[in-house]
Design goal:
Length: about 425
């Protein structure tokens, strides 16, 4: 029984972790891609990280994660949900649900951040009268429907065999994680104690009002003062992996992240005095990227929030292999087309990275028309890194022009002074 449910969980999480496809101006058109299900405006809003309404001012070919995309830039009329964004990534062709935005056209976009950047699928974009109708509806949409109040019996699965990592380091989950409705849940304390979000208590009401704020990293809650610490132990979780019936309550928990509510199927709940929230939904609303490995039952979290120029980040170049399980290479310098690089891996205590040297063109050479490695650029500070979107012009120049490679080499590993607007690095940024 456990094997069956976990197979469903793994499949669901892999689907959610997949690279979003594209954006189209007309969801009614038929493409080689398929949505697979019809969702309501309410659900579209609840699952989106950002909802924006605006006119397209520019469309260009770009690279992210070393892979081709198109990027639409908007003059935004309304940010209906989430923080301010004015660029959206889309796949490069219709087979991947990608359609070029029309300059000057106005669109309503339901974006997600599962790339670590605002992106959308072919079915997340509307224009014309339908877009206007949805915008009018969204102005009044503040909350999705909550489950019925009072205790409810549901089937849970212990997550004792789950490993959670943050930026490559294993981190504890106490009490243990739970699977419900094909979703991995962790205690609210995970985001407070492990990820560093601060708990602020207000006892003005008799229910939890949990507000996660990504910009100032805080958790505000209201309810019974005896629950102010959010209990970190639930004695009711059985040992083992078998499903068990549990009594939970939804009516004493309400949660938002930067004003964004949870979709109906992933509402937080209270079990055994512990508030549980869906790991992926909560993390991604805070700008964290979650990937699920069904082979090892590992949920890997990466902090993909933008770095501020006041943090004085450095520019880092990585060459990522197109083969599964092969480590990235970090390029420290390029001189006369010779790259001084090291393998990106966790070092043992006292160990120093081995410096290697090879021709840059050899490192990215093509086999059967496909490059061995993808060029990626990051801003990095300490353990945090933020990947930049690279314009098509810069990518082609890095591949073909030694002078551009020498220019960018002067900046690698150093504080980045020529700041890339909107996280997009252009050839003008490296001269």
């Amino acid at each position: 029984m456990k094997k069956g449910i976990i197979t469903c969980v793994a499949a669901a999480m892999v689907t959610l972790a997949a690279i979003p496809a594209a954006v189209t101006s007309s969801p009614q058109k038929v493409f080689a891609c398929s949505k697979g299900e019809v969702t309501s405006a309410e659900t579209d809003y609840s699952v989106a990280s950002n909802v924006l309404y605006g006119s397209v001012t520019n469309v260009e070919n770009v690279f992210y994660d070393g892979k081709p995309y198109r990027m639409a830039t908007f003059a935004t009329f309304s940010n209906l949900k989430g923080g301010y964004v004015n660029t959206v990534l889309t796949a490069p062709d219709s087979d991947q649900c990608g359609v070029t935005f029309e300059l000057g056209h106005t669109y309503l976009v339901y974006a997600n951040n599962r790339l670590g950047r605002a992106a959308a699928s072919a079915f997340d974009v509307f224009e014309g009268q339908e877009a206007e109708n949805r915008v009018n509806e969204l102005k009044d949409m503040a909350m999705v429907r909550y489950p019925d109040p009072g205790p409810q019996q549901i089937t849970l699965y212990p997550g004792s065999d789950v490993t959670v990592t943050l930026d490559g380091k294993t981190i504890p989950v106490t009490p243990g994680a739970l699977f419900y409705n094909n979703t991995l849940y962790t205690p609210m304390t995970f985001f407070r104690d492990i990820l560093g979000y601060v708990t602020v208590w207000n006892a003005d009401s008799n229910r939890y009002e949990i507000l996660l704020r990504s910009e100032w990293a805080g958790i505000a809650a209201q309810g019974d003062p005896s629950q102010s610490e959010f209990k970190d132990a639930s004695a009711s979780i059985p040992i083992g992996t078998d499903p068990f019936e549990a009594t939970v309550t939804y009516s004493d928990v309400q949660a938002r992240v930067d004003g964004r509510v949870y979709p109906p199927e992933t509402h937080p709940f209270n079990y055994g005095g512990v508030v549980y929230v869906p790991l992926r939904d909560t993390a991604e609303k805070l700008g964290l990227l979650v990937n699920w490995d069904p082979q090892t039952y590992t949920a890997s979290i990466r902090d993909t929030r933008p770095l501020d120029r006041d943090e004085h980040p450095a520019l880092v170049m990585k060459l990522s292999s197109n083969k599964e399980g092969v480590s990235d290479l970090i390029v420290d310098r390029i001189e006369n087309d010779q790259a001084l690089y090291r393998v990106d891996r966790v070092l043992q205590y006292g160990e120093t990275p081995e410096q290697l040297k090879a021709s840059f063109t050899d490192l990215i050479q093509e086999n059967d028309g496909v490059s061995d490695r993808r060029i990626r650029l990051f801003l990095e500070k300490g353990d945090r890194e933020y990947e930049l979107v690279m314009t098509d012009e810069l990518m082609k120049s890095l591949i073909t022009n030694p002078l551009v490679r020498n220019s960018i080499s002067l900046t690698l590993g150093r504080e980045y002074y020529t700041w890339p607007d909107n996280g997009v690095i252009r050839q003008s940024n490296v001269h």
